[in-house]
Design a protein that fits this description.
The complex is a heterodimer of chains A (about 220) and B (about 120). By secondary structure, chain A is of the alpha/beta class. Chain A contains eight helices and seven strands. The longest helix of chain A has 16 residues, at about 60-75. A six-stranded antiparallel β-sheet of chain B has the order 1-7-8-9-2-3, covered by helices on one side. A three-stranded antiparallel β-sheet of chain B has the order 4-5-6. The chains are: A alpha/beta (about 220), B mainly beta (about 120). At the A-B interface, loops of A face strand 2, strand 8 and strand 9 of B. Chain B: This is DUF1806 family protein. Chain B: It comes from Mesobacillus subterraneus.
């Protein structure tokens, strides 16, 4: 993994950072690189309330806010921005407002690497709208001055249409930190971790690959 | 939240009768339903802080339960209700959790707007 000047991670939901990129984040932090995580919403409309449920629709935002802070702490992120949007509504916001917000983050932080979702290939409407805004903001910068834009895709057609990811990080050295970040989002991941526990114990190759390989596609500007 | 106790929920519903209240009504099967199962048709809706008043309300069924609020020109309806809570702000929170504990439906009533 290359040493970066500053890494800016932009996702819409607490826990988006945990599954796909937390090993990458932890690796950058270990190299001494400052990492900023800008999280647009608090995942207020999540369906998972813990198992058995310990949250309800009205207590969930505060619980997820705390989980997000815990996950950031586990990863060593010291600049966590909560941007105050509401879950499921990002795509209905004014597009220019979103673009300008991303532009202002990039201008302020001057990152050498920006990580977000690949628009068109990231399944959840909030992911799509967030990734699209990030792409629009980076596109506005003169090509020579642009930070690297490495995006997460996981729709069923992503490999078919985008090709294989050009970046695959083996994060097994920090897998424990990644699992801590996933666990920090307890309300959302308790059920999943329960289902995964046996597979982890048996060292199931598919589960280990899912944890240890973080895949990115460098965005291709047309 | 606790499993529905009909008498307690009915009492709470009656307390809000003829008052101006804010309602959160939601149904969802998750943003990933179609991604996880392509044959599944994903749908959902929510309305947050609808201001209304109702003249009667009832929770009924053998569990999961159904709740209906009769409003001047129509109805508010939710089915699949399994749990309830009257929170520290006196709001009535009704929810239906599926077999994995995931939220499937919510109907909430408050005298002040939800945040």
């Amino acid at each position: 993994m290359e040493k970066e000047r500053h890494v800016l991670v932009i996702f819409p939901h607490p826990d988006d950072e945990a599954f796909g990129v937390s090993g990458t984040i932890a690796s950058h932090v270990n190299m001494g690189t400052p990492v900023t995580y800008a999280c647009l919403t608090l995942g207020e409309m999540g369906r998972n309330m813990g198992n058995p449920p310990f949250a309800n629709r009205e207590t969930l935002p505060a619980i997820r806010k705390k989980e997000l802070k815990d996950a950031a702490r586990a990863l060593g992120i010291n600049d966590l921005r909560m941007l105050g949007f509401r879950d499921k509504t990002v795509e209905f916001e004014d597009e220019d407002k979103l673009t300008n917000l991303m532009s202002s983050l990039i201008t302020e932080l001057n990152p050498s690497l920006v990580i977000s979702f690949y628009p068109g290939y990231s399944v959840h409407p909030d992911h799509e709208a967030t990734g699209a805004a990030v792409v629009r903001a980076v596109e506005k910068i003169a090509a020579a001055d642009r930070p690297k834009l490495q995006l997460v895709a996981f729709s069923r057609n992503c490999v078919e249409e985008l090709g294989q990811p050009d970046i695959v990080h083996d994060i097994s050295a920090v897998a424990d930190i990644k699992l801590d970040a996933i666990k920090a989002h307890r309300s959302q991941t308790e059920l999943m971790l329960e289902e995964m526990a046996d597979k982890l114990k048996e060292k199931d190759p598919q589960t280990l690959a899912w944890i240890n390989n973080e895949r990115f596609w460098t965005y291709k500007f047309s | 939240m606790d499993p529905v106790i009909l008498s307690e929920v009915q009492e709470a519903l009656d307390r809000f009768k003829d008052k101006e209240v804010y309602v959160h009504l939601e149904t969802t099967n998750g943003a990933y339903a179609s991604h996880n199962n392509e044959s599944f048709f994903s749908s959902g809706a929510y309305i947050r802080n609808a201001k209304l008043s109702y003249e009667r309300a009832k929770i009924t069924g053998e569990g999961p339960y159904r709740a209906g609020l009769k409003i001047p020109f129509g109805w508010v309806y939710a089915e699949g209700i399994t749990h309830f809570e009257i929170d520290d702000k006196g709001r009535l929170l009704l929810a239906g959790h599926d077999f994995n504990g995931k939220l499937a439906v919510a109907l909430e009533i408050s005298e002040t707007p939800f945040e």
